[in-house]
Amino acid sequence: MAALDSLILYWSAGGNTRRVAEAAAEGLTAGGAQVALLSVTDGAAEQLDLSIYPLLGLACPSYHFGPPAPMRRFVEQALRRQGVQPTAPTQPLRWGIAMVTYAGPHTGLREATPAGDFLAQGLQHLGRQVRGEWYTVGAFHGDLDQPNNRIGLLGDIRHRPNEHDLGVIRSNALGLATALRWELEAR
């Protein structure tokens, strides 16, 4: 079966998104993919040729209904480096996944979907077929936000993402890797 070279780029302030990115990498690896995992703040991330990876994952938390500044800058720079074509044609055998962590204390998942939409649009503008938008609940880490971890719309989210949440990501990634490897093999 064909190899699936994958790159997951993430930004994480409190560790929730890093843990989700690591779980995705574990699932992809279990599905036979070769996975590189890197923070967008690592200087090496800016030097990467994203087009060589059949699967590109982008992961970040949702901050005030959008991606945080480091991820926004990275995606915008990647779009400038690659050069977006009119109609953003999908490249053959090039896929993407968007992963977002969120606390959602006021309106739940709706607080996170704009960040996921931004990541998915970035991937599509890079010519990738988006094969997943995965949202994972994650607790706030700042002292001022602790009440939102207990009494927000999603209930008590302390200690999340928990092992169940990360297991869902691993399972999604394993299934995706298996499907994409078959698609590579069919070509």
* Whole-number mean pLDDT: 95
Number of strands: 5
What fold name goes in the CATH topology slot?
A: Rossmann fold
Strand order of the largest sheet: 2-1-3-4-5
Shape: globular
**How many distinct helices?**
6
Termini separation = 11 Å
H/E element sequence = EHEHEHEHEHH
What does this molecule look like?
With 187 residues, the chain is of the alpha/beta class. The protein has a single domain, classed as Rossmann fold (3-Layer(aba) Sandwich). Helices cover 41% and strands 20% of the residues. The protein has a five-stranded parallel beta sheet, with helices on both faces. Strand 4 (95-102), helix 4 and strand 5 (129-137) form a beta-alpha-beta unit. Helix 1 packs across helix 6 (163-186) and helix 3 packs parallel to helix 4. The longest helix has 24 residues, at 163-186.
